Amino acid sequence: MSSAALHEPTFLILAALAEGRKHGYGLIAEAETLSGGRVTLRVATLYTALDRLRKEGLIAPAGEEVIEGRLRRYYELTHDGAATLTQEIARMEQLAARATIRLRHRPGFAFGWGGGAWA
Fold this sequence. Notes:
Blueprint: H1 8-17, E1 22-23, H2 24-34, H3 43-55, E2 59-67, E3 70-77, H4 79-104, E4 113-114, E5 117-118
Antiparallel strand pairs: 1-3, 2-3, 4-5
Helix pairs in contact: 1-2
């Protein structure tokens, strides 16, 4: 488990696996959903990240199956992966809380989200 911040694609992969095993294209779709459409993982980026995360012990193979003639490899989050994801969520929450406090102290700034724009 590392204390360094996770890159966003890594965070999204771990978050996608938090609810259960997924195959590569499922991870690509889930990363796009989780990011609100901002992040689209490229296949090469995904598989490079999956290899690295597997070597780091954050994810593990979780089976294979052939669907319509194509092999799907599934991955799942390990205990260390879940701990790393939890640590990163806590780090991000702390940063967001600190930023929120600073915004609230900004003169003439009404803090809040209303209708898609800062109120």
